[in-house]
Write a structure and sequence with these properties.
This is Replication factor A C-terminal domain-containing protein. InterPro entries: Euk_RPA1_DBD_C (IPR047192), NA-bd_OB-fold (IPR012340), Rep_factor-A_C (IPR013955), REPA_OB_2 (IPR031657), RFA1B/D_OB_1st (IPR003871). Belongs to the replication factor A protein 1 family. GO terms for molecular function: DNA binding; zinc ion binding. It is a single chain. This protein is of the alpha+beta class and 565 residues long. The protein folds into four domains: 105 residues, Nucleic acid-binding proteins (OB fold (Dihydrolipoamide Acetyltransferase, E2P)); 142 residues, Beta Barrel (OB fold (Dihydrolipoamide Acetyltransferase, E2P)), CATH 2.40.50.140; 134 residues, OB fold (Dihydrolipoamide Acetyltransferase, E2P) (Beta Barrel), CATH 2.40.50.140; 97 residues, no CATH class. Helices cover 28% and strands 32% of the residues. It is built from 16 helices and 26 strands. Strands 1, 2, 3, 4, 5, 6, 7 and 8 form an eight-stranded mixed β-sheet that branches. The protein is elongated, with a radius of gyration of 32 Å. The C terminus is likely disordered. The protein binds zinc ion. Zinc ion binds next to loops.
Length: 565
């Protein structure tokens, strides 16, 4: 600049008290008084000069009335005789060890706009964050698009105050993903945006002055209290050109499907998934399922069969099961003198090529609840989490240990007699091939979820007759019985209350009252059906049996209020 008297922000030092700086306010916020949050302690700013050097600036409350009106975000100012303070906070909003303070001798004037950038972003690549190559006490700027998100939730902070939280996955142009946690007003801003702009395609965001943490091998970012700026799909150059790049990538032949994601998809929290959105079932009900679906069961792993292989080889590129083949190895002279084990992938993408294979878990577990036992398959992702090691590591341990010749890991014992809430998936494959080993798509031991499910079970059991257990054991595998058909029977009589309404009212005394009603109703029904029951079990004709069991089941539907979702 022609004006020799103006200093750049990185030239300021504590010895010189008559500096003049020309800056733009790129961020402005009010710092509340810790002891009295409704009072202002100071007005704080991030200032940037024309070379994009930045500094944190602060005006104590007593000086505020004099100068407050001069501070407008994005506008430029001339500041004469500022003083420099030391920054004590562990978290550095900007890369500058000093804080610019306003004292009695400090003079502030608005000035002409000097051009240049309005925000001065300095983006950090996801790569550096994921590899933990960035200091955790300095703010970062990131740009990316929202790939997935969870619904905003209410949380109680450590100090007992209430706040909002929202978790998202943000993705960059190279398909790298990082977790972003937004708190308070930032969570609200994001939630509001997503709920009011439903057909917007990509949601590109910039988080400026964000907070980076790396913990347990996981990188994540979040907002800081005040200084963070969150820009969502705004019409600024950085966001517009990022969107253009996304569109280009989506058009590139061979572009992976995840580049084609446009609209961010909402994920259900475990709480919503296990307690609200997915139907709860007893194991005894599972045999009657005739359509592909997911449901929740609450049970205990009782047994892991030793004679079933607990791992398989998967294709490294497509994750599908591979077939072992013998490949002839060529000796140096070109003759085939040896064979070695290889793997062939027959998945459409890999087209029968010999591929690299990795070992993955596929553990058959027998799960029991109060109504029966179910065969479930614990796949790699969930098994790895529970056992805290990969299938490969576990197999190597066993092979080197040389103890268990049938390759059955001791580690599995710690799963037995453990209770979980399982989200189980029944696929068309299960149904069409009568394949009764169902996939566990998720499982949890979250105490809140287990406790809620336990309540559900207790409620059912209290309104249930002991004969239920006898019947569940003698369910015939007769295809003519379709329990679905009887599902339409629900409690709609005058003297009963549907459970769904009970749940929403959550009045305990109403619940108690309804239990009594249901039990009374049950007594009446048991008397009515006593004859049929005796008849049903005394005959061997399957038709009569199925008819009777059908009625029996109808009775259950009357006794057990159907839980509506
Ligand atoms: Zn493959």
């Amino acid at each position: 600049m022609a004006d020799q008297n103006i200093s750049m922000l990185n030239q300021l030092n504590v010895y010189k008290t008559d500096s003049v700086v020309r800056v733009r306010i790129i961020r402005l916020w009010r710092q509340a008084d810790n002891e009295n949050p409704s009072e202002t302690y100071s007005i704080d700013m991030i200032l940037m000069d024309e070379q994009e050097n930045k500094i944190h600036a602060s005006v104590l409350k007593k000086f505020c009335p004099k100068v407050e009106g001069l501070f407008v975000e994005k506008e430029c100012m001339l500041i004469k005789n500022p003083t420099l303070g030391k920054i004590y906070s562990k978290f550095m909003s900007v890369d500058n060890p000093h804080k610019l303070n306003f004292a009695y001798a400090t003079k502030v004037n608005k000035c002409e706009d000097f051009g240049g950038h309005l925000y001065g972003f300095k983006f950090t690549s996801f790569d550096l964050l994921l590899q933990n190559l960035v200091p955790q006490n300095q703010s970062i700027d990131v740009i990316g698009f929202v790939a997935t998100y969870y619904k905003m939730e209410d949380v109680t902070k450590k100090d007992g105050t209430q706040s909002k939280r929202m978790c998202l996955q943000v993705q960059d142009l190279e398909q790298r993903k990082i977790t972003l946690t937004l708190w308070g007003t930032y969570a609200q801003q994001m939630s509001d945006y997503l709920s009011t702009n439903e057909d917007d395609g990509h949601v590109v965001i910039i988080l400026q002055f964000g907070f980076f943490t790396y913990y347990n091998g996981r990188a994540s970012i979040s907002n800081s209290y005040n200084v963070t700026r969150l820009l969502i799909n705004e019409e600024i150059d950085e966001i517009l050109s990022f969107k253009k790049m996304l569109d280009l990538l989506a058009c590139t032949p061979g572009a992976s499907s995840s580049n084609g994601i446009s609209r961010p998809s909402m994920l259900l929290s475990f709480h919503d998934d296990f307690l609200i959105s997915t139907e709860f079932k007893h194991i005894a009900e599972v045999d009657g399922i005739r359509e592909a679906m997911s449901f929740i069961i609450f049970g205990t792993i009782k047994f892991i069969p030793r004679d079933v292989k607990w791992y398989y080889h998967a294709c490294k590129s497509c994750n599908k099961k591979v077939t072992p083949v013998m490949i002839s190895k060529q000796a140096l002279d070109g003759s085939c003198d040896d064979e070695e084990q290889g793997y062939e992938c027959n998945n459409s993408g890999c087209q029968g090529k010999v591929v690299e294979a990795v070992l993955r878990y596929k553990i058959l577990v027998k799960v029991q609840d109060s109504t029966g036992v179910l065969d479930l398959v614990l796949w790699d992702r969930e098994a790895k989490k529970l056992l805290m090691k990969s299938a490969n590591v576990l197999l190597e341990e066993i092979l080197s240990g040389d103890i268990d010749m049938d390759l059955f890991p001791e580690d599995f014992k710690k799963l037995v007699d453990k209770s979980f809430a399982f989200k189980v998936q029944i696929t068309d494959y299960n149904l069409n091939h009568d394949y009764k080993f169902y996939t566990i798509s998720k499982l949890t031991q979250d105490p809140t979820i287990l406790c809620e499910l336990q309540k559900k079970l207790n409620f059912d059991q209290n309104t249930n007759s002991d004969s239920m257990h006898g019947i569940s054991q003698s369910f015939p595998s007769d295809d003519t019985i379709n329990f679905k058909d009887t599902d339409v029977v629900s409690m709609s009589g005058d003297n009963t209350t549907p459970l769904s309404r009970l749940e929403s009212s959550t009045g305990n005394n109403i619940l108690e009252k309804s239990k009594t009603t249901a039990i009374n109703l049950k007594r009446n029904l048991v008397e009515v059906y006593d004859d049929d029951e005796a008849q049903g079990y005394s005959t061997n004709k399957s038709r009569t049996t199925s008819k009777t069991i059908g009625k029996e089941n109808e009775k259950h539907n009357l006794i057990i209020p159907k839980i509506e979702k």
